[in-house]
């Protein structure tokens, strides 16, 4: 991949954030406040972190045009204490309902899943949403039958002694 990265020296404030987030160590800065340098651009993994973290938009990456970089108002983010509270309050709900999930909720879940981290930060994933109860039932039956078949094979009197030697527990 032919990647081009440039630093707009006129707008760069030399904060070094791009240097800190680059997993390929392409961005350089001898000491805080020094100009940002570039090295080994061919080793870029095209994650886009450098362009996304730059507070002035001075990092220009050929794979991440300004319309692909979404500035975040950090004042709207929860505090570390609020995030910890959310983690502490999180519970698994196994009391499922037969009521259909509203399309708006499905859309929000898919948006969150699409924004989740992926290799190279490209989000090149797709999802299949199945809401038809008959199809869901077929998937459930197939999954249960598959695992039941595996469990039966593991309990086979010929296989069990071999597995015991490999995995005594």
Give a written overview of the molecule:
Strands 1-4 form a two-stranded antiparallel ribbon. The chain has 169 residues and is mainly alpha-helical. Helix content is 37%, strand content 6%. The protein has helices at 17-21, 49-53, 80-89, 103-115, 133-154, 160-166, and strands at residues 5-7, 27-28, 37-38, 59-61.
Order of helices and strands: EHEEHEHHHH
Sheet with the most strands: spatial strand order: 1-4
Largest sheet: 2 strands, antiparallel
Number of helices: 6
Overall average pLDDT: 89
Which structural class do you get from the secondary structure elements?
mainly alpha
Q: Kindly report how far apart the N and C termini lie.
A: 48 Å
- Give the C-alpha Rg: 25 Å
Shape: elongated
Q: What percentage of the residues does DSSP assign to strands (E)?
A: 5-15%
State the helical fraction: 25-40%
Poorly predicted segments:
none
> Count the strands?
4
């Amino acid at each position: 991949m032919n990647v081009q990265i440039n630093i707009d020296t006129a707008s760069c404030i030399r904060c070094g954030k791009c240097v800190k987030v680059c997993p390929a160590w392409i961005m350089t800065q001898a000491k805080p406040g020094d100009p940002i340098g570039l090295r080994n651009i061919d080793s870029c993994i095209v994650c886009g972190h450098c362009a996304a973290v730059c507070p002035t938009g001075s990092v220009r990456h050929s794979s991440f045009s300004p319309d692909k970089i979404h500035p975040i108002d950090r004042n709207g983010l929860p505090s570390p204490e609020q995030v910890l509270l959310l983690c502490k309050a999180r519970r698994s709900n196994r009391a499922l309902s037969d009521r259909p999930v509203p399309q708006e909720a499905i859309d929000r879940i898919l948006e969150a899943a699409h924004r989740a981290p992926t290799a190279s930060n490209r989000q090149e994933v797709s999802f299949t949403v199945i809401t038809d109860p008959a199809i869901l039932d077929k998937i459930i039956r197939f999954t249960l039958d598959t695992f039941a078949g595996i469990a039966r094979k593991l309990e086979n009197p010929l296989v069990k002694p071999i597995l015991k030697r490999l995995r005594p527990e």
